[in-house]
Amino acid sequence: MKTITRLFILISLVSSVACTTSEQSNESTGSDGPPLFTSLSPEQTGITFSNNLTEGLNTNVLMYEYFYNGGGVAVGDLNGDGLEDIFFSGNMVPNQLYINKGGLKFTDVTATAGVAGREGPWRTGVSMADVNGDGRLDLFVCYSGSLPPQKRIPQLFINEGPDAQGIPRFSEQTAQYGLDRPGQSTQASFFDYDRDGDLDLFLLNHNPRLLPILDPDATAAIMKQPNPEIGVRLLKNTGNRFDDITEQSGLSSSVLSYGLGSASQT
Ligand SMILES: [Ca+2]
Ligand SMILES: [Ca+2]
Ligand SMILES: [Ca+2]
Questions:
Q1: Separation of 16 CA from ligand 3 center, angstroms?
Q2: CA–centroid distance, residue 58 to ligand 3 (Å)
Q3: pLDDT by residue (tens digit) across 208-250?
Q4: Tell me, what's the pLDDT at 44?
Q5: Alpha-carbon distance 168 to 58, whole Å?
């Protein structure tokens, strides 16, 4: 029930971020009962994040079919005070991290926490997980798009713990963990597939390019050809380091991947 309550609150908060029309009612009503949800304004919550997309000659849905994919949101207690904090990833705008001050009031601590992410697009999903098993939630941000490889490397932010003001400090350690490989990632799922006590990583990638209409034989042939940037990846945690075991696992990692969604249970 607690999880569901948190989900309702999150939906309400995200709705307040996404809402752009002041004419809309701030309450949604059940068919025959009291309101089920209340939309809170940015003035009430302090959350002003907006995933604004700036269209241009080379940045539009005609030039890039997945222009409207992303960003992402993750909820978890990053500073250990018992209150759920919120991280937003922005496609073309910097990420933002909000610390929960209680009473549904939030403070933007992105700069101090060090999690704005590198400049430039195209951030997609974000995951909170205790990647190194030290009891503190870490952050993993995916990137994709028609971009050079160095701009499609994900970012792993390791939680170094809160400072005296209760603001969690992070350090980017993507390369140290062996995760600095370019991809077309939309979401990361951390789970312990081999039940050895540490979290492994399923990386959901997608194909940003148009594929021709294929007959069954051509489809079967493509399915047999792995592609490490576009196909899904499974990585084993070998002690604060991740090794790609996709091929040994038997998972298909061809370019026939839409990267629509993944789910895991930790
Ligand atoms: Ca917190
Ligand atoms: Ca951690
Ligand atoms: Ca494991």
A1: 37
A2: 42
A3: 887 777 789 988 888 889 999 999 999 999 998 999 999 999 9
A4: 98
A5: 37
Cα 54 to middle of ligand 1, angstroms: 32
Residue 90 near residue 49 (C-beta atoms within 8 A) = yes
DSSP 133: S
State in Å: Cα 23 to ligand 3 middle: 50
- Say if residue 28's pLDDT is above 60: no
Ligand 3 centroid from CA 98, angstroms: 30
Give me ligand 1 centre to Cα 203, in Å.
26
- Ligand with smallest separation from the Cα of 194: 3
pLDDT at 266: 62
This prediction's pTM: 0.86
The answer on pLDDT for 9 being more than 90 is no
User: CA-CA distance, 152 to 184, in Å (whole number)?
Assistant: 7
**What separation in Å is there between the alpha carbon of 107 and the centre of ligand 2?**
22
96-102 sheet: strands from edge to edge: 72-76, 85-89, 96-102, 105-108
Structure tokens at 140: 């993993």
